[in-house]
Amino acid sequence: MFLKSVTLKGFKSFASATTLRLEPGITCIVGPNGSGKSNVVDALAWVMGEQGAKSLRGGKMEDVIFAGTAGRAPLGRAEVALTIDNTDGALPIDYSEVTISRTMFRNGGSEYAINGTTCRLLDVQELLSDSGIGREMHVIVGQGQLDAVLRATPEERRGFIEEAAGVLKHRKRKERALRKLESMEANLTRVKDLTTEIRRQLGPLGRQAETARKAGTIQAEVRDARLRLIADDLVQLTATLEQEVADETALIARRTEIEEQVGALSADLDQVERQADAARPLLAQAQDRWFTLARLVERLSAIATFAGERVRLLAEDDDGPEATPARDPQLLRAQAIDLREQHTALVDQIEQAAAELREAVTVRTAAEQEYAVEQHRLAALARAAADRREGLATLAGQVAARASRIEAREAEIGRLRDIEAASTARAAAAEREFATLEASIAVEEEGEEGLDTAYESAAAELSRLQAEVARLVDAERDADRTRSAAAARADALAMSLSVKDGVAALLQGEDSRGVLGSLSQLVHVESGHEAAVAAALGWAADAVAVESMGDAVHHIGRLRAADAGRAGLLVAAGARPSDAATWPALPAGARWARAVVQADDRIRAAVDQLLDRVALADDDRVARSLADAGLVAVTPAGDVLAPGFARGGSGAPSQLEMTAAMEEARAHAEAAARESEQARFARAALTATSDEISAQVAAALERLHDSDARMAAVAEQLGALGAAVRSARAEADRTHAAIRAGAEVLERDRADHAELVARLRAAQAEPGDEGDASTERRDALEQAARAARAHETEVRLTLRTREERDRALVERADALEAAAAAEEAARAAQAARRERRAKEARTAHAVRAGAAYAVQVLRTSATRADEQRQVGERERAERDARMTLLRRELAVLQDQMRELTDSVHRDEVARAQQRLRIETLQARALDEYGVAAETLIAEYGPDQLVPAVVIASDPDAPVPDPVPYVREVQERRLRTAERQLAALGRINPLALEEFAALEERHTFLTTQLEDLRTSKRDLLDIVREVDERVERVFTEAFHDTAAQFEAVFSRLFPGGEGRLVLTDPANMLTTGLEVEARPPGKKIKRLSLLSGGERSLVAVALLVAIFKARPSPFYIMDEVEAALDDANLGRLLILFEELRNSSQLIVITHQKKTMEIADALYGVTMRGDGVTTVVSQRMRDLA
Fold this sequence. Notes:
Structural class: alpha/beta
Number of helices: 23
Helix content: 55-70%
Shape: flat
Largest sheet: 6 strands, antiparallel
Distance between the termini: 26 Å
Number of strands: 24
Oligomer: single chain
Radius of gyration: 65 Å
């Protein structure tokens, strides 16, 4: 067996379909770094079932699909096909050539196929496991895995040997057996619970069967007595009905006469009511007319009064004194004119003062200028005298030196200005480029913020979803456990209820005439009161509810005919429960049984009748007190205490209790199932969402990394440009500062030069010395300037005073003119007011006269309307009296007719009730006992002799002679039989059938329990057998590997010592594996103290030892010799050549020596488009 070929399409960098045809021996795959050599190793591991994305050097499994390049679009799937030569039959399949293929799609879907037939991953793993290739993939040694072999735990190193020894399939067999064992434990627990529950019910049910045998004879006695009493009642009621029929002709005639009189009175009353209805609108109109006229008279009288009062008030206002204005407007205007004239005169004075001020300013300025000129002249004279004393030669030298400095300074400033212009240009160019990059990085930063937010929110959502999935898994597991336990209990209770008896025959039979259902299903009892209510109901707790007595008799006959057993029937019709309002009050710790029972409306009355005056007591003490008070009391344990008897003890639970328990268990199971389904659906939805969010997190992280890289590159460019801008700006600023300083120095030099030139010329112009300059003229000019400034201040104050006076005059004139205008407006308003009041007075006179005339006319009309209203009122009173008399007579006749009608109805109701009682008795006889009325009277009537009932338990006893019917004797006979029946307690007529069915079910479950225990022992034997085989196979593989390791180590490390040590030799099933290595010349044994090359060589030694101890058909090694020197490489290649004899080697390498021993070479390269290509060369063709 060897690898024949491998085809890659769309796998990582293999975008195009690429086939590598492999041959026995050593095949080397070579190529530059990054060309895709290791992708071949990943493809082989992937097609053989590798499930870890990290093992394939990826973040997620979809990373194996070709992601595209700049010039090639990404692909939608990756596919790898591995063809294995199976001529030697190493693989357990009937093919000489086996092709295993795997396809991965972008949506995460994956497909496996063996020889083109779709299969599962498990099928691929089981196919390869017998050849030493398992989940650990020890035959594939990838990059970095050598050190991982040494860093692995002892248990992980054990896994390498187990996989090579073929232990994996045995461990899978053990895992399957353990899963079956766990499931069987659950079934075993369930069957044990069912068996225990049934065993608990067998004892009480046997006692009930014995009691049921004694009830037959007593029930026959009760039936005969009840039928004879019913027949007696029926005969008596029939005779009474015939005697109560009376003559109703007189009553009917009297009622007819009174009906005629009532009709006549009703006609008279209708005529009077029609007259009243006709007169009522006329009376209403007269009343409305009178009320309207009266209101108009009142309103007009009030208007006339108001108009007179208005006339009086206006007259009083006209007679009062008239207000006169306080001031004359003409006088005010004259005063304003005087003030305007004063303002005009003052304006002339202000202009004159302003002219004087301008003249004073001119004088002051001239005086100050003359003073300054004189002061400067004196200073010049002083300097000229000094210059002449210094000497003309020195002064001329200073002038020449200053001129030279000025020329040099001007040249330096020109050079600095050129430098400043160049720096400013560089800074502007760098700033423009910086602004462009800054704009682009602003956009990137906005996207960066969005990427950060998207990644953080997606990561947070992923964490939340993972926590929620874990919580839902726990909830689903808890709900499944709860559902299993509740279902087991419900099944046990259902089997206990599903016995074959008369009740079951009625409920499950085809003839369901009048059947309402089992009482236990039609009533609902508050939790905790089931036992007490079942004891209170007695026989009815297990009864079947029917609609009528006829239905009950029909079904009893059907049970008897079919020999289907006995059943208690509760009849819904005819029940007459007592009124609870008449019952006594209950003490604390007690409540009526009716209050805890909810029943179907159709049987509510029958259930209430059964629970008449039945109370539920919290304890025995309260129950005794209720029984002493004449009530029936039931304790929580089901004991019944009543006046004259008590019933209780232990027994099997009633159907009511078992039904309640079963419904509760089923409700728990359904609730748990719903919770489990909800948790399962929610977990599935959250898992799908979690996968999507995980993909989003990975995509967001990848985009974030790309964005970080772009941002870093742009930031680096921005940093360089910013540094360039700052450098250019700093240079420009330094240059500008130097220019400004040079300019200031140049200006000072020029001023000094001009001053020196002036001094030199002055010195040359005045060759002789002069006396001291006189200061008298300067002092005189200074005094004149001071006097000019004082005169200017005085003239300025005068101007300001006149301006303030002028402003005050203008404001006062404006105020007087405004007051004159206000006085004129007030006089005009007063004149308009006098005119308006005169007009109002004339209007008020006219209104008063018109109102007085209208009041006189309306009063006359109102008097006539009042007379018409009074006439209508008298006529209405007469009609009302007539109608009252007619209604009184009509009421008397109607009362008489009502009494007659009631009497007739009472007689009819009495006869109907009598007939109803007769029909009820007939229906009762037919429904309860299946006897028609004619047969009942003929066979059980009071005229028939009463035969003696034969007791089934004593068939040889003499039969007494029949006796005449006596009602008191039959009632006593019935009471005696009922007491005997009650003394037996609660009777389960189906106990015999239930006991037989339950015993049969117990036997079946016991057999099943024993079968489950036998299966459990078989599974434990399988697990033990697998452990023994694993222990034996591992022990043999370990010893062989240890021997091979010592031999290989001594060859790779001549003079060194290495061995394999078990961590727990006493327990070969779980022991780990340690590696001890001592290179030659060293005393260390710890692997962590070895060098990198030594560690790699020790790892190679371990793997080669495993390869030699348990050879595999092929091995794949990815640059395992990369860290070895030439000497160690040579030793390793010798081992490779030895392995070539038994196995196929595929080696990824860069070493020339490794290539030299290869039988075939594959060269892997990658073009500029990012797609891997392969070239091959068979080495023997070159020889």
